[in-house]
Specification:
By secondary structure, this protein is α+β, with helices and mostly antiparallel strands. It is built from three helices and eleven strands; from the N terminus they run ββαββββαββαβββ.
């Protein structure tokens, strides 16, 4: 956070606009974080924010994501309505994918209660792509179905990136891809190869 202030929040809209707000008072910053409810961030109620010069309201259904940087970093406690992942740079994603390519596909079948790490790309309605790493315990069921549906099953996807917490509106995520492909697919899935553009 370049300003070194204890609270910075940024709203990313479908139109491509980015609206940023910060707060220098540690006490007010703590109050702001107390008002923030990630699990209902993209609900029906608009987000209102204001200072001495203006007040703004954001229609949450059209927000792609909200980024929050706070000092100290909040100890978030999420329920089932929020799924958490870690943001990867394009370079990190490439390295991790190369490492995964050395593992036999059959070795990716998981035993019950075994933790799995998935490399997943998210693409929003504006075509912007993000690479994330997510952990889970799918048990003996299908890995792809668990990893992909898990991210889209909750209205909010929480992604950690350095000191910043990014909250994605999952309703505006158009595509989710697991890399590399899993050893098995649901019986109802189409089986085909992506054409590289």
């Amino acid at each position: 956070m370049s300003s070194e202030k204890p609270f910075l929040i940024r709203f990313f809209t479908m139109s491509g606009e980015v609206h940023s707000f910060d707060e220098a008072s540690p006490e007010t910053a703590r109050q702001n974080l107390g008002h923030l409810r990630p699990e209902t961030l993209f609900g029906d109620e608009p987000i209102m924010i204001g200072g001495s010069h203006s007040a703004s309201a954001f229609r949450t259904k059209t927000l792609l994501r909200v980024e929050v940087t706070a000092r100290p970093r909040p100890q978030w406690s999420f329920g089932a309505r929020v799924n958490t992942a870690r943001l990867l740079t394009t370079e990190e994603f490439g390295r991790r994918l190369a490492e995964r390519a050395e593992i036999e596909r059959t070795e990716q079948l998981l035993k019950e209660n075994e933790t799995s790490t998935g490399l997943i790309s998210l693409e929003d309605v504006r075509g912007e792509r993000f690479y994330v790493e997510v952990e889970g315990r799918p048990g003996p069921s299908n890995v792809a179905r668990h990893m992909l549906s898990r991210l889209l099953s909750a209205p909010v996807i929480h992604v950690q990136h350095g000191e910043t917490d990014i909250f994605f509106n999952s309703q505006l995520i158009e595509a989710v891809s697991l890399h590399p492909g899993p050893p098995s697919l649901p019986s109802t899935a189409f089986e085909a190869h992506r054409i590289q553009s």
